Amino acid sequence: MAFVSRSHRDPNETYTFSSRPRPVENRPKYRGPPSEQMQSNYGNIMYDRRVVRGNTSQHIIPTMSQPHPIEIQRQQEIRRRAIARKRAREQFRPMTPEALQGRKHIDVQTELYLEELSDVIVATDTECQTDAFLDKPATPLFIPAKSGKDVETQIEEGELFDFDLEVQPVLEVLVGKTIEQSLMEVMEEEELACLRAQQRAFNELRNNELAEVKRLQEQERRHSEEKERRIAQQREMLKKERETAEKIAARAYTQQYLADLLPAVFTSLRGHGYFYDPVEKDVETNFIPWLMAEVHNSLEKRYTARELLDTIIQDVAQRRLDRFEELETQPAKSDI
C-alpha cells in the first residue's frame, strides 16, 4: 500500500512534513489492465498521453493534435459521401441525346440565330466597409479537472530504491533468460539438424527399398508373363494335337462309312427317280401338261358353245310360247 503526504521546503531549511502520511482513497488494491488505467484520469504517467516520450528537445505536441480514430472515420465517411454525390450528379446530369440512326452531331455557328434581349435589368453595385477580422487565439491545452485530494510524502535519496542494488537481480534474470533462450535455440537447431539428417537417411533408405520393390515387382511381372505365354503355347499345341487326332479319326470313319454308302446311295437315288432320261423327263414335264391344257381349252370352248346354243333355244322357245299364249287370248276378247 502506498502512502503519500504533503510537504514544503524552505530555501534555507531541509524538507519537513506538514501532515502525517495517509493512504490514497478510492484506489483498487491491485493494478488493473492498461485500458482501465487510461480511462481513470491517467493516475499512472506511463499511460498518460500528455507525457512526451523519446527526445524531449522538440516542441511538445498538444493532446488534441492527433485526432481520435472515431473522428478520422467520420471524416472519411463524409469524404466518401461527397464523392458519391459528385458521381451521382455527373451521372444524372442532362446530356445531349444520341443521334438517330444514319445521322451524327455537328458543331453549328449560332450567331445568325441570336436574339437581342430588350428587357435589361438595371444592376448597381453597393459597397460596405466592415471591420477587419481578429486573429483567433490559440486553443489552450486541455487540462482535466482535478479530482480527489492531494497528498504527498517525503522520500529521501536512497530510502526506497538503490539502482546498483536493485538492478542486479533484474540483470541476473535477464542474462539468465537470454542465455537459457540462446541454449534452447542452439539445442533446437541441433535437434532440427539431427532430424533433417535422420530424415535424409530415412528417405535414402526408403528410396532404395522402393527401387528394390519395383525391381522385384518387374521381375515377378516378367516371370508371370513368361509363365502365361508358356501355358498359352502348351494349350495351343494340345489344341492342335487334339484337332489333328479328331481329323484323322473323322477321315478314317468317313472312309469306312462311305465305302458301302456310295453304292447304296446311287441305288436309292435311281429308285426315287433322281437319275432319269432327259427325253422322257421333257415329255412328262413339258409336252403332256401343254397337251392337257390345250384339250382342256378345247373342251371349255365346246361347253361354252353348247351352253350358248341351249340359251338361244330356250329364249326362242319362251318367245314362241308367249306369242302362242297371246294368240289364244285374243279370240276370246273379240267374242266378248
Offer a few descriptive terms:
two-stranded antiparallel ribbon, 3% strand, 58% helix, disordered N terminus, elongated, mainly alpha, 336 residues, two-stranded antiparallel sheet
Element layout with pairings:
Elements: E1 3-4, E2 7-9, E3 15-17, E4 22-23, H1 34-39, H2 69-91, H3 163-271, H4 278-335
Antiparallel strand pairs: 1-4, 2-3
Reported for the largest beta sheet, the result is: 2 strands, antiparallel
> How many distinct helices?
4
Radius of gyration from the CA trace?
70 Å
The ordered string of helix (H) and strand (E) elements is EEEEHHHH
Mean pLDDT: 78
Overall geometry: elongated
Category from helices, strands and their pairing: mainly alpha
Give the neighbour order of strands across the main sheet.
1-4
Percentage of residues assigned to helices: 55-70%
User: End-to-end span in angstroms?
Assistant: 182 Å
Pick out the low-confidence regions: 1-11, 34-40
Description:
This protein has 336 residues and is an all-alpha fold. Helix content is 58%, strand content 3%. The protein is built from 4 helices and 4 strands. It has helices at residues 34-39, 69-91, 163-271, 278-335; strands at 3-4, 7-9, 15-17, 22-23.
Short structural summary:
Helix content is 58%, strand content 3%. It has 336 residues and is an all-alpha fold.
